[in-house]
Amino acid sequence: MTNNSCIVIVSLIGVLLFTIISNVASSNDVVSTICPKTSNPPFCSSVLKSAGTADLKGLAVYTLNLAHTNARKSLTLAKSLATTTTNPQLKQRYSSCAESYDEAVGDIENAQKDLALGDFNAVNIVTSGAMTEIDDCQDKFAQPPKDTSLLMVKKNSNFSILVVSFQNNNNNFIIIIII
User: Where is the Pectinesterase inhibitor domain (predicted)?
Assistant: First the structure.
């Protein structure tokens, strides 16, 4: 990290995907149905309420956009760290993470296209791929040397993965919110 412009606050804030989307519900109904089933209900409520819509597809669009923005920030940071670090082990890990985040960005972009086409199964598949890529990056730092950058926010208490599966009116929904 050579200057502040290279430091990007990294936080995957949200991926919201559904296997089937059909109903419009009130914001309170959505929040009260989904968020209690997560490991961090206050964060879930905050994210879903900030979307400004109660439409399930609108929530999916909103959170995919957040995920895309933050995955791109993570990609930029990983590339910067790979370039600036002097530790060869960390350099290799950051380079590998840059590749993982590049794949995750592509997966999220595909999910956005699939959602627009109404192909909810494909949204589920490609967002799962994005999660795998992000997990792969995180796993590279299980052993020393320790990463002290903002890339590994998963290691601190501010990182949560909230996964909920629920059924409502015979429609199956999968919600994944990441910060």
Answer: 26-163
Q: For the chain, how many structural domains are there in total?
A: 1
CA dihedral 136, 138, 139, 141 (to 10 degrees): 140
Residue 17 backbone phi and psi in degrees, to 5: -135, 155
- Dist. CA 179–CA 11, nearest whole Å: 5
pLDDT at 151: 76
Return the CATH number at 137: 1.20.140.40
Domain range for 90 is: 4-178
**Which pTM value belongs to this model?**
0.72
Sheet architecture: strand order including 15-18: 15-18, 171-178, 161-168
